[in-house]
């Protein structure tokens, strides 16, 4: 990931009604994500006091477009991580030929019993297929 892959998040302070085809409407409290690479003539720190028009995504409506930077406040940086595979809700069928591979405790000494365990992952992501949050349960 490069520094230009970072995104900034903003929170809408005021209502804005779309005026042009490329604009997006805002409601107070909307969260907006703006790619750092989309900021023109960006200087470090400019994200904290946006001026002019910003181009981003309204996370509530999933609309992408332009909105006035003076209608929002800076909320923070979003760093994109590596995508994580989504859990598969179906059990895997037996391997043809009767052999089965499993993940879990290795061979046990005579008389010992292996503890049964499983790990479940729930992951949520954005429309671009990037995972933003995962919860693991054992």
TrEMBL record:
PROSITE patterns per the UniProt record, alphabetical: SH3
Bias (Low complexity) ranges: 97-113
Ranges of Basic and acidic residues composition bias in the record: 57-66
Keywords attached to this entry: SH3 domain
UniProt keyword rRNA processing present: no
Region Disordered: start-end pairs: 43-67, 84-113
Positions with biased composition (Pro residues): 86-96
Domain SH3 span(s) in chain numbering: 5-77
Protein name: SH3 domain-containing protein
Source organism: Hucho hucho (huchen)
């Amino acid at each position: 990931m490069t520094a230009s892959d970072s995104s900034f998040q903003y929170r809408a302070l005021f209502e804005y009604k779309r005026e042009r085809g490329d604009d997006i409407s805002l409601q107070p409290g909307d969260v907006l994500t703006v790619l750092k690479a989309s900021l023109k003539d960006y200087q470090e720190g400019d994200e904290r006091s946006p001026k002019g028009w910003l181009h981003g995504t309204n996370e509530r409506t999933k609309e992408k477009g332009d909105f006035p930077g003076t209608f929002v406040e800076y909320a923070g940086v979003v760093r994109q991580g590596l995508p994580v595979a989504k859990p598969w809700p179906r059990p895997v069928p037996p391997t043809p030929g009767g052999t089965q591979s499993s993940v879990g405790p290795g061979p046990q000494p005579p008389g010992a019993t292996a503890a049964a365990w499983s790990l479940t992952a729930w992951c949520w992501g954005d429309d671009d297929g990037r995972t933003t949050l995962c919860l693991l349960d054992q």
